[in-house]
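Task 17 of the worksheet. Students: predict the tertiary structure of the chain below and write it out as structure tokens. Keep your answer in the requested format; marks are given for formatting as well as content.
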Amino acid sequence: MSAILVVEDRKDVRLSLSILFEDNGYECIEADNPQVAQIKLKAAEHEISLILLDMNFSMDTTSGQEGLDFLSWLQKSSFNLPTIAMTAWSNTDLVVQAMRLGANDFIEKPWLNKQLLHAIKQQLDLSCLQRQNTKLKQQLSEPCQDEYQWRSPCMQVLFRKINAIAETDVGVLLTGDNGTGKSELARYIHEKSQRSTAPFIAVNMGAITETLFESEMFGHKKGAFTDAKHGRVGRFELAEKGTLFLDEIANIPLSQQAKILRVLENGEFELLGSSHTKKTNTRIISATNANFTQLIEQEEFREDLYYRLNTIEFHVPALKERHEDIIPLAEFFIQKYASKYKRGINTLSSDAERALVAYHWPGNVREMSHIIERGVLLSENEKLSIDDLHISQQKQALATDINKFPFMTLQQAEVSLITQALEQTKNHIPKAASLLGLTKASMYRRLEKHGITKG
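Model answer:
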């Protein structure tokens, strides 16, 4: 039910409007002057959908200045509500001033019920469309690509399990190495669910800084902080009635994990700068390549949040475990990129097939996609050859590096790699993190864990 704030000093007029609105399915909130209206707005906030403002009050019954002052205050505030001005002392100059200060419509007293109700419905519908447009502009997820049909037994087993739960609203945690295709699986689950016609919103948790976390996830009001010149719709609200995919879930800062846990437990959150509690109706799918057991033991991840996330947990196999898919998947990518770049390449040479099968695929499906794309772009032949793929050189280089690498513990190896990455990037932490395949947040945690300092 939409709530209308009526700002009017005459009690009999407020009563008449209250009866009219309640008979037509609206809730009426009354204020006998602009100062009381400001208090009620701050207390109720998003419960109010529209303001019906009398322009003249007991202090000055003809000029409309009190109404104009309220409109000026409203325009500078964080409230973004449609406002209909109303007065028995209407004149062209007052109407123009009111419109310049943000009034959306103007009604003269005595009003016609039908005309007033039509104006209210029109403004509420327009406000709803504007909110929907804001949501659509913020949805950055790309359209789903054509699907590859997996042939390997391990992937067929995985898809049977996924199909069994896809139509439910159960939370899903996808685990596995980087590049195994967890994002694509999350979208597949959404498309097979009963929420498939609603939004699928994906967010990389490792890319959100701690200071912007609440704004990104829950949204903020205009004026909530220094640079908040406009309101923002958060990811939970964008995904309303749909699916929210939290990628790199292990990278949520420990200080923010309790806020995510609260939403998962009772569906409640507040916009930054607001005291009004919102409810969300969203399915959560999350993904990670992290070792949660280790993170929980090191007190870097809340155990209760982990159990909330992994109602159903699926492990996504590495590409080297999907032996039957290597050549068909490569051919799938050839067709995809040959079509995209309008190249006349349609298959693999026999030596390229052997190289693909023998390769260990540390970067999994993502690496294969990049290798094939580069090959399609640079090849001058109708078939991709081993020279186009550059796999043998990569494999040989890796084998040489492994032979030279001294035996050490995993912790020593991690410290050594982080130190080398910092030296190579001249202590530029974001670049070093990218070089190691880590997010910036993960890199900072490892620096703190091992006591590594820059320089």
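Marker's comment: The CA atoms of residues 151 and 325 lie 6 Å apart. The longest helix spans residues 113-138.
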